[in-house]
Structures
1.
Amino acid sequence: MTAILALEEVKVHFGGVKAVDGVSLSLRQGALHALVGPNGSGKTTAVNLMSRLVDPTAGRVLFDGTDVTRVPRHRLYRRGLARTFQGIRLLDDLTVRENVLAGLDALDLPDARKASQRRDRADAALARMEILDTAGLEPSALPYGVQRRVEIARALAGDPRVLLLDEPVAGMSAGERRDIAEVLHRLKGDGLTMLLIEHDLQFVLGLADHLSVLNFGTLLASGEPQTTAALPAVREAFLGG
Ligand code: ADP
């Protein structure tokens, strides 16, 4: 297996709280990996570890075969890691395109220094999310599901190799979820490696290539999605959560 991003025996302890407590996890290149678990099981902390927003108390983070445990996050993002957050983080006094450009500016990519190159990249990312027609609008004028797509477009503008999505469909209608599922499927077809955090197990089952289940900061199970979801321990954790 070619792992592009991996956690090796990582722990994140906040005082007495063991948010993540000895987890090893690797994302196979080109696969859509789902990370599920009840509330408080450590999913967001795991993504924060992978994107260098928190330092591990112990263990290592590897990206593309190198140890990035202490690498500043902007360097990691420039090497091809991107993420979205649980809540919407768009600037309402900017247009959709300007929001995407702001994400790109932060990366300061050598091949996107000209305004025209940056605009092309932003528009390509919006087109990938099928929302190029909203480029000149302000996010607050758009339905919630479209705003979430803008966030994914912003993450895609730097043309990342790995995209971490923290509950991208939370709060979406059933129709919006179906649409996003299609878009994620297509991104996978383009070869993008993704980690999808979700607490709705059903949503990820039709979509993910690999399922990992966290519970109380530890990895309860990891493997083929249907088989993993059917394990008694996994079912129990979800009934309890
Ligand atoms: P999930 O995403 O699965 O809901 P989190 O990773 O957000 O879980 O949280 C895991 C545990 O770590 C929870 O008990 C949470 O309260 C705790 N936690 C997360 N971040 C912090 C922090 N910055 N300080 C203290 N406790 C935290």
2.
Amino acid sequence: MPAAQAPLPPLPHRGAFITLEGGEGAGKTTQARRLAEKLRARAITAITTREPGGSPRAEVLREILLSGLIKDLGAKAEAIVFAAARIDHIDHTIRPALLAGTWVICDRFADSTRAYQGSFGGVDPGFLEVLERTTLDGVRPDLTFVLDLPAEVGLARAAARRAPETTTDRFESEALGFHETLRRSYLAIAAAEPERCVVVDATADEGEVAEAIWDAVCSRLFAEGAPRKAENSRESSGSTRKPGKKREQDEAHPAPAPRSTSSSKTLA
Ligand code: Z5A
């Protein structure tokens, strides 16, 4: 599909790509939904999506990955399967949306491979770098939020949310030390790429976290501050729910009305 591999135009000639990263129960799904609602209220078309998953074939790979079937093949094989899911997600959801002018808010992305399979799984960083470059093919986040909180707080939130009859998935069942290693890994990624990453204190209440995220979106993606609220604003639309686990993923929206190129700064 040669057209899909053309380089993305710079902002604002496409939608912005925002990712949310962090440990289990940090609030990524919650904040993705809240951010999409804020954008839509300002007449900016936005979808939320997730990884692993986000396209029909990638959702199949998600089931396999979270079931633990790939675990015995080792972290390197897991990284490759996460990458395979990501390629399909980019080709069928992310890139088409960005090219149509839709903002894409993604719950986990390539930093999760760096943290889980890299820092914790011990996969060679050189291998992961090549894998990431090949997989992303130029589709890199404009802005990444690292939702930071102590591992035990996130795990307690996830446990409180879990339906009584469901079990933990392949990653939730890892020891506390695993989740603390992940936390340090995400903070290291943010420290290494401050132009892309913003660390947000995820122990604050949902509203405060949402405000911190919105402030950063406005200051980093809108040169003139918060975009004007539209007269005919739209709020959140459809969502899907995975059995036993809260999940929200929206249908793609049609392309938005063109926005003034002077109201955004170019990040790409
Ligand atoms: N993985 C990988 O290894 N390599 C990769 O490349 C990728 C992923 C992409 C996917 O799990 C797993 O795949 C993940 C990493 C691995 N493993 N783990 N663990 P997932 O998608 O099923 O789970 P998750 O990404 O960890 O999401 P989560 O558990 O759903 O957490 P969350 O999205 O960050 O949180 P939430 O759903 O928004 O909120 C959790 C609960 O806390 C919920 O009841 C909320 O109402 C509540 N909440 C949210 N915010 C707050 C605040 N501020 N205060 C209090 N309570 C709150």
